[in-house]
Design goal:
Keywords: Cell membrane, Membrane, Metal-binding, Transport, Zinc
Subunit structure: Forms a complex with DabB.
Number of strands: 22
Helix content: 40-55%
Function: Part of an energy-coupled inorganic carbon pump.
Subcellular location: Cell membrane
Family: Belongs to the inorganic carbon transporter (TC 9.A.2) DabA family.
Length: 1030
C-alpha cells in the first residue's frame, strides 16, 4: 500500500468568489472514479477499473494501486506456490522476462550477471520481503547469517564459500588493511582461520556478504516518494494517530443510510426531497443532548447556514478556504474526499444519475450535498483533535501548523529492505563478498537501481504474465488439436434433423449443462446466445409490484411485457394479492415495533419460538423448503398465466394497449436470434426447439442478483425465453419471418424454459399449448434434460468441500438443492468463478471439448454472415463487454477482496435495501464477496473467435468499446480460421500466427472421466462421441 502521506497546507483565499458550476464540475469529475455498482437487486458485472479503462491494463492496475491502495495482482507468495505446482512454467517465466526487457536481457550488470539472470533468480526462488523492523529481527534472531538459504544451489554455495575462504586467508596472511567492522567480525571467529570449521566459514561468509550488501546499498540512497494526499486528515493521522474519518464517517454513514433508504427505515428524513445537504442541515440544526462532544458546535453552524440560505456549493467553497486548500489543488482534494467513503458516495451518484433503478429516487445534486456535509463534519473533527492534542480548538490553520511542527524530522529511508533483497539474490547467483566490496559507488548505484526497478509489483506482473501464458498456450493448443480432430466428423444426426434443439445463455455455467446434454443425447443440438434472447423489455410478473428491465445494462428497453393470470383465476389472484399485502403489513409492523422498548421486551420473551424454524432451515433444508413451498403456494399467483405480449397501439409503453410488441417487431426479434444462431434454413430446424433462460435462487443471499443472468441486468431470463417461444410459435410472426428469408417448418414447435443454476432445476412454460403431435418429442427431450441436470449437479459438487467426491448424480442433485435452501450457506453456488474463456463460433469445433466449466460459449456461423460481418459485430458488441466485465470484476475481487471486493459475506448486513455493509456501520461494500471468488483464477479472459484476422481488425476499428478492451490488453484475443482452423493471436495491434507448444490433448469417454475424484482446476480433454443413452 502507498506510504502514509503528509500534506503541506497553504493558500488561504478569503476573498475568493463562489462559482457553483465549477464546484459541481469538480465533484462530477471526481465521481468518475467512484464505483458504478447500482442497487444490489440489479447487480450488473462490470470492469471495476472502468474509470481507468483508457489506460493499458498493467498501467491501470498500478494507477488503481496508487489511487485506491488496492493490490494489482495476487500476492507474491501465491504466485510462487503456483510456480511450485507447475501452473506457472519456468520456460514461460523466461520468455516473459526476455520479452519484457526488450532486447536488454543480455546486458551485464557490473560483471555479476545479466539483467535476465538477475531477474530470473529473483523470480525462481522465494524472497523474504517485509517491513524493515521485521527484516532486522530476521537478521538478528534467526540463522539468516549462519546458514545459506535452502533454495541456494550447491554450485552457488560452493562458489561463494571457496572464493570467500581464499580471499579471507590471503587477507589475514598479508595483513591487509580491512575496515574496522570486518576486523571486529574476524575477531569474533578467532584470528586463526585454520581452526574454523565448515559451519564457522559458512557463517562468516554470510556475515561478510550481508555487510557488503548493506554497506553498498547505504551508499545509494533512494529519493522519498512525494506526498500525494491533500487531506488534513492524513497530516493529523501521521502526527497524532487520531483519524478524523472515524468521527466523520460514523455520522455520514448513518445519515446516508437513511437518506437513500428504499423502505427499511422507520421514518423519512426531513426535507429529503430537497437534497442531501438541505436534509442534513435541517436534521442537525436542532440541538440534541445526544450529540457527541466533538459535534457540539455543529448545530449553531448549520443554523447560520440555514438562515443565510447557503447552498451546498457555497458551503464547499467556504470549507475549502478554511481548510486552506489551494485552488490548484481543489480538484484533487475533492476527489480524495469522495474516495474516503467511496461506497456510499458511489451509490448516491448512481441513484441521482439513474432514478429508474429504485422506487424512492433522490434529487440531482445529492453528491455535492454529501461532500458539503462531509467537509463541515471534517472541520469539527479537526477542531476536536486540535483541542485534545494541541489545546487549540478554534483556528484550523493553527491546528494544522502545530501538527506539522509536531512531526519529527523524517528518518532517512532504512536500507534493510533493499539490502536483504540483494543479500538473497547474491546467494542465489553465487556472488562473493569480495566481488561486491570491490564495486565502485557508480557500480553500486547501477546494481541497486536494477534490483530496485524489479520491485515486488514488477515481479508480480511478470509472474502474472507467465501465469496467463501457461493457460493461454494450453487453451489454444487444445482448440487447435480438437478442431483438427473434428474437422471431418459430421454431425451425429447426419442428413436427418436433430432430435431436439436447445438454446441457452452463453453463460459459463451452461457450458457444462450443454456438454452433458450432448453426451446424454448426441442427436440434440445446442446453441449459446445472450440470455435475453434479443428481447429487451421491462417486465412485470403477476406478483410483481413494478416493472424491471430484462436486457443488458447498456440497453434501455422501449417495450413492456406483463404477466397476467387467466381470466377465470382473476378473483383468486386478487384475493391472494390482498393476502400478500396484509402479511407484508404485519411483518413490517412486527419489524418496526420489535425495535421499541416494549416491543424489545416482548420479542425477548417470545423470540425463542423463532429459533424453531431457523434451526429447522439449517438442519433440514429439504424438509423446510417443501413446507415453505406448500404454504407458499397459497400466496403465489394461480398456475395459469399468460404474457401480455401483443401490442395494438403504435407506441410502446406501460399503459394498457401499449404493452407488448407488434407482429412486425416480433418478427424482427425472431429473425435476429435465428441469424445469430445460424439457424436459417428449413432443414436446420428440429421438431422440438427449446429456448432456455437461466437465473439463480438461494436463501439469505443479498448478492442473489449477481448470480442471475447478466444479459438480463441481474434478473432471471425465464420471461425472455417464454416470450421468444410464444413469438416464434405465432403463425403471423412466422409469415413475417419468411418474408425476411427464414422459413420455419410448420412442424417446429418452440418451448420456453428456465434453468436454475443453483439447484439445477429446469421448468417449462406454457405446456398447455403443446400440441399432441409433439408430446413424444417433448418427453424425450425432457428425459434427456433430466439426466443432464443430474450429471451437471454431480460435476458442480466436486468443487464443494462439503460434498463427498463419492456422491452419485441423484445424491449430487439433492446436495445442490439443499444448498439453495440452506440459510447458513455462504456458497450456494460458485457462479462465474474460474471463468477464463469465451468461444465464439460454430459448435462443431468445440463440441466434446472438456473446458472445466470455465468458458462462455457463443454460437456464430461465419458462413452465414455478410461481407461487413454484421452478425459477428452484433454478437461481439454484447459478448465482449459483458464477458469482459464479468471476468474483470472477478479478477479484481479476487486479487484484493478488501479494496475491490466486499470482503467476507459473514458480517454483511443489508443497508437501505441497496447494498451491504460490514456490521452495523461501514462503507457500502461493492464488488464480489470472498466466498464467491475464493476458487477463482484471476486470469484475463481469452476470446477465441471463429473469423479471419481482417474481419476482427475491422470490428476493433468500428466498435470503440471492443477496441479499447483489446488494444489495452484488458482481454486476450485470438481468431481461428473458418476454413483452415489456423489460429492467430492479437498482439500490439496486429495478429500473429500461433505456433502450438506441444501440449497434448488427452481423450476421455465422458465428462465424468475428466473430473472424477478431483477438486482442482483440470486440463482440457477431448470427449469421444457416444450413442444416445436414451
Amino acid at each position: 500500500m502507498p506510504a502514509a502521506n503528509i500534506v503541506e497546507v497553504s493558500g488561504f483565499h478569503p476573498d475568493q468568489a463562489t462559482d457553483p458550476s465549477r464546484i459541481r464540475q469538480q465533484v462530477e469529475h471526481g465521481a468518475h472514479l467512484l464505483p458504478t455498482q447500482g442497487p444490489i437487486e440489479v447487480f450488473v458485472h462490470h470492469n471495476t477499473l472502468h474509470a481507468l479503462e483508457s489506460l493499458p491494463f498493467h498501467e491501470a492496475v498500478k494507477a488503481g494501486y496508487a489511487r485506491f491502495g488496492a493490490e494489482p495482482y495476487l500476492p507474491e507468495q501465491e504466485y510462487r506456490r503456483l510456480l511450485q505446482e507447475g501452473r506457472i512454467q519456468d520456460d514461460d517465466l523466461e520468455a516473459v522476462v526476455i520479452e519484457d526487457l526488450s532486447g536488454q536481457n543480455r546486458e551485464w550488470i557490473d560483471g555479476l550477471g545479466t539483467r535476465e539472470q538477475i531477474r530470473l533468480a529473483m523470480l525462481r526462488h522465494p524472497l523474504l520481503v517485509g517491513p524493515d523492523a521485521e527484516l532486522r529481527w530476521i537478521v538478528a534472531e534467526t540463522d539468516a547469517l549462519d546458514r545459506f538459504r535452502p533454495e541456494v544451489s550447491q554450485e552457488s554455495r560452493l562458489r561463494i564459500l571457496a572464493g570467500t575462504r581464499t580471499w579471507i586467508q590471503d587477507s589475514l596472511a598479508n595483513d591487509l588493511n580491512l575496515p574496522d567492522e570486518l576486523t571486529e567480525l574476524f575477531s569474533k571467529f578467532g584470528r586463526n582461520a585454520s581452526k574454523w570449521n565448515d559451519a564457522a566459514w559458512e557463517s562468516l561468509t554470510l556475515h561478510l556478504l550481508w555487510w557488503a550488501c548493506r554497506n553498498g546499498v547505504q551508499s545509494c540512497p533512494v529519493a522519498s516518494s512525494p506526498a500525494n494526499s491533500l487531506r488534513p486528515r492524513d497530516l493529523l493521522l501521521h502526527a497524532t494517530g487520531l483519524d478524523t474519518d472515524r468521527y466523520v464517517d460514523d455520522v455520514l454513514i448513518r445519515f446516508s443510510t437513511a437518506y437513500v433508504d428504499q423502505g427499511y427505515s422507520d421514518w423519512i428524513l426531513p426535507n429529503r426531497n430537497e437534497g442531501f445537504f438541505e436534509s442534513f442541515v435541517t436534521l442537525y440544526s436542532d440541538k440534541s443532548p445526544g450529540l457527541s462532544r466533538w459535534m457540539r458546535g455543529l448545530s449553531e453552524e448549520l443554523t447560520n447556514l440555514n438562515r443565510n440560505g447557503t447552498t451546498p456549493e457555497e458551503s464547499i467553497e467556504a470549507s475549502l478556504r478554511e481548510l486552506e486548500i489551494a485552488e490548484a489543488d481543489q480538484q484533487e482534494f475533492i476527489t480524495q474526499s469522495l474516495m474516503s467513503l467511496r461506497g456510499w458516495a458511489g451509490m448516491i451518484w448512481q441513484l441521482e444519475s439513474g432514478v429508474d433503478w429504485v422506487v424512492h429516487s433522490i434529487p440531482k445534486g445529492s453528491l455535492v450535498g454529501m461532500l458539503a456535509a462531509q467537509l463541515i463534519l471534517e472541520k469539527h473533527a479537526i477542531r476536536h483533535i486540535g483541542e485534545e492534542d494541541f489545546g487549540e480548538a478554534n483556528s484550523i490553520s493553527t491546528i494544522l501548523q502545530l501538527a506539522q511542527e509536531s512531526l519529527a524530522r523524517r528518518i532517512p529511508l532504512n536500507v534493510e529492505r533493499r539490502a536483504f533483497l540483494l543479500f538473497q539474490t547474491a546467494q542465489m547467483l553465487g556472488w562473493q563478498p569480495q566481488q561486491l566490496m570491490s564495486l565502485s559507488k557508480a557500480d553500486w548505484q547501477r546494481l541497486a537501481e536494477e534490483i530496485d526497478s524489479f520491485s515486488g509489483i514488477e515481479r508480480r506482473r511478470i509472474y502474472h504474465e507467465a501465469y496467463e501464458l501457461k493457460y493461454r498456450h494450453a487453451a489454444l493448443d487444445a482448440f487447435a488439436e480438437h478442431a483438427s480432430r473434428r474437422k471431418n466428423i459430421a454431425a451425429p444426426w447426419g442428413s436427418q434433423r436433430p432430435r431436439f434443439q436447445i438454446a441457452t445463455c452463453l453463460d459459463d455455467r451452461e457450458e457444462s449443462f450443454r456438454r452433458h446434454l450432448e453426451e446424454v443425447e448426441p442427436m440434440c443440438e445446442t446453441f449459446g446466445v445472450a440470455g435475453f434472447f434479443a428481447i429487451a423489455i421491462y417486465y412485470r410478473g403477476a406478483a410483481d409490484g413494478f416493472y424491471k428491465p430484462l436486457c443488458p445494462a447498456v440497453i434501455t428497453p422501449d417495450h413492456y411485457v406483463q404477466e397476467d393470470v387467466g381470466y377465470s383465476f382473476e378473483g383468486i389472484h386478487r384475493e391472494r394479492a390482498e393476502l400478500r399485502r396484509k402479511i407484508g403489513l404485519v411483518r413490517r409492523a412486527f419489524h418496526t415495533r420489535s425495535r421499541t422498548f416494549l416491543g424489545g421486551i416482548a420479542a425477548g420473551i417470545v423470540g425463542s419460538l423463532a429459533t424453531v424454524p431457523l434451526v429447522a432451515r439449517v438442519l433440514f433444508p429439504h424438509l423446510t423448503s417443501r413446507i415453505r413451498r406448500r404454504f407458499g403456494s397459497l400466496l403465489q399467483p394461480p398456475p395459469v398465466t399468460r404474457l401480455q405480449l401483443e401490442r395494438y397501439a403504435d407506441d410502446p409503453g406501460p399503459e394498457n394497449g401499449h404493452i407488448g410488441f407488434t407482429i412486425d417487431e416480433m418478427a424482427n426479434v425472431v429473425v435476429r436470434l435465428l441469424q445469430d444462431m445460424g439457424v436459417t434454413t428449413p432443414n436446420a430446424f428440429s421438431r422440438m426447439f427449446i429456448i432456455c433462460g437461466h437465473g439463480s435462487s438461494s436463501l439469505n443471499n443479498p448478492h442473489e442478483s449477481a448470480y442471475c443472468c447478466g444479459a438480463c441486468a441481474g434478473k432471471r431470463g425465464g420471461p425472455n425465453a417464454r416470450a421468444f417461444a410464444e413469438m416464434a410459435n405465432d403463425w403471423r410472426v412466422r409469415a413475417k419471418v419468411a418474408e425476411q428469408g427464414i422459413q420455419i417448418p410448420d412442424d417446429t414447435f418452440f418451448v420456453g424454459a428456465y434453468h436454475n443454476t443453483c439447484d439445477d432445476s429446469v421448468v417449462f412454460y406454457d405446456l398447455d399449448r403443446l400440441p399432441g403431435s409433439h408430446r413424444d418429442d417433448f418427453e424425450s427431450a425432457r428425459e434427456s434434460i433430466e439426466t443432464a441436470r443430474r450429471r451437471n449437479a454431480h460435476e458442480r459438487c466436486r468443487r464443494f468441500d462439503s460434498a463427498p467426491l463419492s456422491l452419485t448424480p441423484d445424491e449430487a442433485l439433492r446436495h445442490v438443492e439443499a444448498r439453495a435452501q440452506d440459510i447458513s450457506q455462504v456458497r450456494p453456488e460458485y457462479n462465474h468463478a474460474t471463468n477464463t474463456l469465451c468461444v465464439v463460433g460454430r459448435r462443431d469445433w468445440t463440441r466434446g471439448l472438456y473446458m472445466d466449466r470455465r468458458a462462455f460459449v457463443t454460437t456464430y456461423d461465419p458462413t452465414q454472415d455478410d461481407a461487413e460481418h454484421s452478425i459477428l459485430l452484433r454478437i461481439l458488441a454484447a459478448a465482449i463487454p459483458v464477458c469482459a466485465g464479468i471476468n474483470l470484476e472477478y479478477y479484481f475481487s479476487r486479487v484484493d477482496t478488501t479494496a475491490y471486493g466486499s470482503g467476507s459475506k459473514l458480517p454483511h448486513n443489508i443497508a437501505s435495501l441497496l447494498g451491504v455493509m460490514e456490521g452495523t456501520s461501514s462503507d457500502l461494500r461493492t464488488g464480489l464477496y470472498q466466498q464467491m471468488v475464493e476458487i477463482h483464477d484471476p486470469l484475463r479472459i481469452l476470446f477465441v473467435i471463429e473469423t479471419t484476422p481482417e474481419a476482427m481488425l475491422s470490428i476493433i476499428e468500428r466498435n470503440e468499446t471492443i477496441g479499447r478492451l483489446c488494444r489495452g490488453s484488458w482481454v486476450h484475443l485470438a481468431t481461428i480460421d473458418p476454413e483452415t482452423s489456423d489460429i492467430q493471436i492479437y498482439r500490439d495491434g496486429e495478429f500473429e500466427t500461433y505456433e502450438t507448444n506441444g501440449n497434448e490433448l488427452s481423450e476421455a469417454d465422458s465428462s465424468l472421466a475428466c473430473y472424477h475424484g478431483s477438486r482442482e482446476h483440470l486440463p482440457f480433454s477431448s470427449i469421444r462421441e457416444t450413442e444416445s443413452v436414451q
